[in-house]
Amino acid sequence: MKIVFFGDSITDCDRDKSDAASLGNGYVKVLADKLRPIYPDMDIELINKGVSGNEVCDLLARVQTDVIGLKPDAVVIMIGINNVIHQFKIGKQLDLVKFESDLNELLDRLKEAGICIIFLEPFLLPAPDKKRLRPLFDKELEIINRVCVEKCDEFVAFDEMFTGLCESRPYADYSEDGVHPTFKGSNMIANTAIKAIRKHLM
User: Fold this and answer.
1) Calpha distance 184→110 (Å, rounded)
2) In the chain, how many domains are there?
3) So what's the pLDDT on residue 157?
4) What tens digit of pLDDT does each residue of 146-198 get?
5) CA atoms of 115 and 63, how far apart (whole Å)
6) Which pLDDT value is given to residue 150?
7) What separation, in Å, do the N-terminal and C-terminal C-alpha atoms of the chain show?
8) CATH number of the domain that 191 lies in?
């Protein structure tokens, strides 16, 4: 079974782009180290196609080459936080109508290719300098939830999960900057995502 991981820096995590087998040092690598021992007799190929800084439109632009062309059985997607960050960081306005259109087209193309879609909801932890992003991020999440629950084979609500955890634990346990996970955060993502992936392993 072939699974492609598709997203931004949270997926990328310093993978060696010159090495197709490189999984980076984030949740994808943690997940791989947990998944392969569970199925020692199964040929499972995991491919990391995360690119730091990507938005939904960037995934749409490269979905044919980096996912569909590889003919995977499943794709695991986490995307969306940069669409919000870039508005505050570089002044690139987030057009929610275009965001929804791009997301729909991305998922439709994957579905038409017969690829199982496992969508991991992006998250934002309450780091002091990230709190101003929350109102816009919540509007984006409304779109993500509405579109992905309908179109994806699995949807994992990570923002809800991390928000709940941060009510009793310091946010920095899971992400020092509110966006990029610590090892503990990556481990939480891997442990939860693996449950969704295992439902579709053949």
Assistant:
1) 31
2) 1
3) 97
4) 999 999 999 999 999 999 999 999 999 999 999 999 999 999 999 999 999 99
5) 12
6) 96
7) 7
8) 3.40.50.1110
Ranges of residues in the chain with a pLDDT under 50 are none
Domain with 87 in it: 2-198
Nearest-angstrom CA–CA distance, 113 and 115? 6
* Rounded Cα distance, 23 and 148, in Å: 25
What are 169's two structure tokens? 């634990």
CA separation (Å) from 102 to 39, 108, 130, 191?
A: 35, 10, 25, 29
Whole-model pTM over 0.90: yes
Per-residue HEC secondary structure of 131-190 comes to HHHHHHHHHHHHHHHHHHHHHCCEEECHHHHHHHHCCCCCHHHCCCCCCCCCHHHHHHHH
Residue with tokens 């040929």: 43
The values of phi and psi at residue 199, to 5°, are -65, -20
Q: How far apart are the C-alpha atoms of 73 and 50, rounded to whole Å?
A: 17
Distance CA 85, CA 92 (A): 9
pLDDT at 202: 61
Characterise 13 by phi-psi region: left (phi > 0), alpha (psi -120 to 50), beta (else). left
